[in-house]
Amino acid sequence: MVCRDSLKDNQMDLFLPYFKMALFMRVHRTVALIALCTILFQYPKFTSAKNRPTRSDQTPVVATGTLDGPADNAEAAGDGSGPDADDEPPQLKQQKKLLKIYKEHFREKRKEQISVAESLVAKSDYSRQYSLAKALMDQVFRQLRQSQKNLTDIVLIELPPIPAQNMSILDSLVNVWENTALLGDVILRLPDISHRMIDNHKLRREVLSWAVHLCQDSPVYLEEHRKQLELVLQEMNMADVPDPSYSNPFSEANMRAKQEEAEETHRLQQLAVDRLRRRRARGPRLSQLRVDL
After folding, report:
1. What is d(CA 118, CA 189) in angstroms, rounded to the nearest whole number?
2. SS3 state of residue 285
3. Do the Cβ atoms of 33 and 167 come closer than 8 Å?
4. pLDDT by residue for the chain (293 residues), tens digit each?
5. Do the beta carbons of residue 161 and residue 67 sit within 8 Å?
6. From CA 274, how far away is CA 269, in angstroms rounded?
């Protein structure tokens, strides 16, 4: 029988790079999940950490990180104060390592998603822009809806941050984390198109609200990512406390006003240049002197 709690730290450290490599090489998510579950489930029982022989000269390691965000020096040698890292439950150590790895992957994933959203904004042809945004949103909402169904009977608050014991649950959560972030990028950069596709669609609004609140409760989302979620709620009029000063610079009205302001500034600058040219073309003028005899 496989005992996850008895995995040695050195065995965990041995196989974590393979999981990390699967994520950063952008292999299909299932491959990464299989690698992760292989780490936790498919290896024979090892001697538990508390029964391992220790050297008398070994420097104690103090884990200063938390599940909400491991500190940079979480695995660095401590100064002798605080509890010994060996006293931490093995599952807690595993969760910290896996959460740190996935956060790094998620940060890289966000760069790709922002690039996708900006490429949509760069489309000059509105019909092309609309069709691409519609295809993307249709796919994202299908995946979010399926994940919502998969997680309906799951008490998420009782799960660890990275629930590696259940591949189906983890896959659904990863779907929600990543697709909600991508959807937020599109909503904030193409707000008018997004309103046309969501405002009058009751099910989509319910799914979006559910996904955003799930992500807000996840330690995967850092402060910068949570800020995006708050802006999405403001944009879609779903915020508990609407911000009267909220304004989306990507909205058609704001972009039109910005364009008109730029055109007016250019007109005034051109007018000033034309006046200066006419003055220079006339050249210097001598004033007539009146001599009284």
Report:
1. 7
2. coil
3. yes
4. 444 444 445 555 555 555 555 555 544 554 455 455 545 544 444 434 444 444 444 433 333 333 333 334 433 333 444 455 567 788 788 888 889 999 999 999 999 999 999 999 998 889 999 999 999 999 999 999 999 999 999 998 888 888 888 889 999 999 999 999 999 999 999 999 999 999 999 999 999 999 999 999 999 998 989 999 999 999 999 999 999 999 999 998 877 777 777 777 877 888 788 788 877 777 666 555 555 55
5. yes
6. 9
Three-state DSSP class for residue 68? coil
pTM higher than the cut 0.70: no
CA 184 – CA 178 distance, rounded (Å): 10
In degrees rounded to 5, what are phi and psi of residue 79? -100, 10
**Dist CA 258 CA 238 (whole Å):** 27
> Per 3-state DSSP, what percentage of the chain is helix, strand, and coil (rounded to 5)?
65, 0, 35
Whether the Cβ atoms of residue 137 and residue 116 lie closer than 8 Å to each other: no
Whole-angstrom distance, CA of residue 255 vs CA of residue 193? 14
**What whole-number distance in Å separates Cα of residue 189 and Cα of residue 168?**
32
- State the amino acid at position 80 in one-letter form: G
